[in-house]
Design brief:
- The protein is globular and about 55 Å long.
- Helices cover about 80% and strands about 0% of the residues.
- It is an all-alpha fold.
- Helix 2 packs parallel to helix 5 and helix 3 runs antiparallel to helix 7.
Length: about 250
């Protein structure tokens, strides 16, 4: 595990040297919450305030951006440039390499989640999760679903550009059709049904629910679907993930 931690620390340092990655991971969600807050910040949405719905939603969105761009696309770039192939030639086991990147992605996401929560508290009087233990467990389940899902999807790309294009496509689809930005009730019925195909829909339902309403035991369907996505994605990622572009 010492090797995993050292590699994760190295990857984290490299992440913070990339200003574009830092912007999209930390600043962009804050800007989006501020933008929507300037329009809806004083508006009650059903039984909840703007912050009670949007902050958990954007924490869920950050799981997507971290899994696809900090994890999946970066590994696709490493595969294209031969870094992964060189890793394979070292005594470091393959699972340790993937574990280090997963750990790094989890740390990056954790920092972004805390930043968004603090921003929501300072600007919009956001309260702490009602069931904080359930919310933390919901975040863990969401990570276990999305990280292998992103690894599988980006492993199908031939190069970094293709991986980035695939990641952007999935992010935009899930961003606008999952209820993260626009209420599903305002969308046509066909899009409301289509949203339930997207994994982010269940992440947002789970995070919003455990943050505001009830414990995770009240959201068995969402938990089951996300865990199923995680299990299937682990199998597919192990089957299709390539250490070389050959």
């Amino acid at each position: 595990m010492n090797a995993v931690i050292k590699l994760a620390r190295l990857e984290t340092k490299m992440f913070f040297r990339d200003r574009l990655s830092v912007f999209w991971t930390f600043l962009f969600p804050v800007v989006m919450i501020w933008l929507f807050g300037s329009m809806f910040g004083d508006t009650a949405m059903g039984n909840f305030s703007f912050a009670e719905l949007f902050v958990p939603s954007w924490i869920g969105v950050n799981i997507v951006t971290t899994s696809f761009f900090t994890l999946g696309t970066v590994l696709a770039g490493y595969r294209e440039t031969g870094v992964l192939r060189r890793y394979k030639s070292t005594p470091l086991a393959s699972w340790k390499i993937l574990a280090a990147h997963t750990l790094q992605g989890t740390v990056i996401f954790g920092i972004s989640a805390v930043l968004l929560m603090v921003f929501g508290m300072l600007m919009y009087d956001l309260h702490l999760p009602v069931y904080i233990g359930s919310t933390l467990l919901a975040l863990l389940i969401s990570i276990l679903a999305f990280f292998p899902f992103a690894l599988f999807i980006t492993s199908l790309a031939k190069n970094t550009q293709a991986a980035a294009a695939i990641s952007s496509l999935f992010l935009n689809l899930m961003l606008f059709l999952s209820g993260a930005t626009f209420p599903l009730e305002f969308m046509p019925t066909v899009l409301q049904y289509a949203s339930k195909i997207l994994p982010l829909y269940y992440v947002i339902e789970l995070l919003r629910g455990t943050w505001n309403e009830g414990p995770i035991t009240d959201y068995g369907l969402e938990v089951m679907i996300l865990l199923s996505i995680g299990v299937v994605s682990v199998f597919l990622a192990s089957r299709f993930f390539r250490w070389s572009d050959k």
